[in-house]
């Protein structure tokens, strides 16, 4: 059942990714002001969404772990954080590649970019705290605290463009600022990346469970 | 100003990073599974001797 679900997710993600590439490169019209480079938007936004979603899962997993002390919550949070770090890195780098031709600079210290960089640092802190703790349970506890506090940054990143005057483009998705074909393309890309993330999260959880099983067997041998 | 170089750099990077990450996950999982199988076998042998 588990393998079948993963296979179904892999196929769905694959088909949606191919559809995304078709829509982004062959279907959607070129934006008038920015030209072809605007097409980065169709993958930059989904990657950013996934990095927020991942931190949301870290938050839920962390609360669950501190509340019930059940390792399954910690496993969920840990797997979500590792994949979240990959997507947050992609969000920062793709944003930077877009910024160079549009703003003339790879990086600008403005609220949206700075708070997004803080999110990336929170992911790093979450993983480092686990790695350097003297005991595994202590690492999980400290990481859970980082995960809960770290989640506070997500609404700040999301609202940074409305709360402060920023150089980052204003919101266009819910304000009717996108042509229907552009909105449809973005929605397909968002779905593709979300499904792909769920698949990666499940693989990450399976991997951590296998690692725990390995530790149990090693302990049994030592006894 | 089309800037195709930047566009392809961004897309190439996304696919390259995700591809390497998936490979890393699969490799790690295979390694752990192989280790589990070997240790289980070792444990079985040890129990037989005991």
Could you explain the architecture of this structure?
- Chain A is mainly α.
- In chain A, 80% of the residues lie in helices and 0% in strands.
- Chain A contains seven helices and no strands.
- Chain A has helices at 2-27, 41-68, 71-103, 111-132, 136-151, 153-163, 180-222.
- In chain A, helix 2 runs antiparallel to helix 3, helix 3 packs antiparallel against helix 7 (180-222) and helix 4 (111-132) packs antiparallel against helix 5 (136-151).
- Chain A starts with a helix and ends with a helix.
- The model of chain A has no long low-confidence stretch (mean pLDDT 92).
- The radius of gyration of chain B is 22 Å and the shape is rod-shaped.
- Chain B is mostly helical and 50 residues long.
- Chain B is built from one helix and no strands.
- The chains are: A mainly alpha (223), B mainly alpha (50).
- Chain A binds chain B through residues 35-37, 39-40, 43-44, 47, 83, 86, 89-90, 93-94, 97-98, 100-101, 196, 200, 203-204, 206-207, 210-211, 213-214, 217-218, 220-221, and chain B through 1-4, 6-7, 9-11, 13-14, 17-18, 21-22, 25-26, 28-29, 32-33, 35-36, 39-40, 42-43, 46.
């Amino acid at each position: 059942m588990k393998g079948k679900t993963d296979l179904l997710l892999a196929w769905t993600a694959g088909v949606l990714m191919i559809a995304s590439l078709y829509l982004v490169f062959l279907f959607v019209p070129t934006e008038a002001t920015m030209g072809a480079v605007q097409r980065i938007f169709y993958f930059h936004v989904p990657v950013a969404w996934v990095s927020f979603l991942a931190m949301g899962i870290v938050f839920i997993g962390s609360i669950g772990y501190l509340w019930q002390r059940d390792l399954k919550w910690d496993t969920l949070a840990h797997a979500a954080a590792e994949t979240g770090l990959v997507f947050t890195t992609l969000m920062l780098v793709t944003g930077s590649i877009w910024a160079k031709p549009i703003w003339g600079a790879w990086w600008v210290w403005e609220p949206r970019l700075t708070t997004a960089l803080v999110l990336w640092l929170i992911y790093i802190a979450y993983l480092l705290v686990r790695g350097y703790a003297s005991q595994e349970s202590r690492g999980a506890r400290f990481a859970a605290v980082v995960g809960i506090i770290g989640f506070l940054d997500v609404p700040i990143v999301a609202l940074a463009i409305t709360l402060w005057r920023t150089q980052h483009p204003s919101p266009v998705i819910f304000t009717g600022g996108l042509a229907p074909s552009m909105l449809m393309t973005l929605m397909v890309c968002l779905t593709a990346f979300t499904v792909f993330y769920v698949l990666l999260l499940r693989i990450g959880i399976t991997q951590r469970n296998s690692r725990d099983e390995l530790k149990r067997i090693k302990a049994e041998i030592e006894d | 100003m089309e800037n195709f170089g930047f566009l392809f750099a961004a897309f190439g990077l996304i696919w390259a990073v995700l591809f390497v990450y998936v490979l890393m996950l699969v490799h790690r999982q295979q390694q752990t599974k192989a280790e589990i199988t070997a240790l289980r076998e070792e444990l079985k042998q040890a129990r037989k001797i005991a």
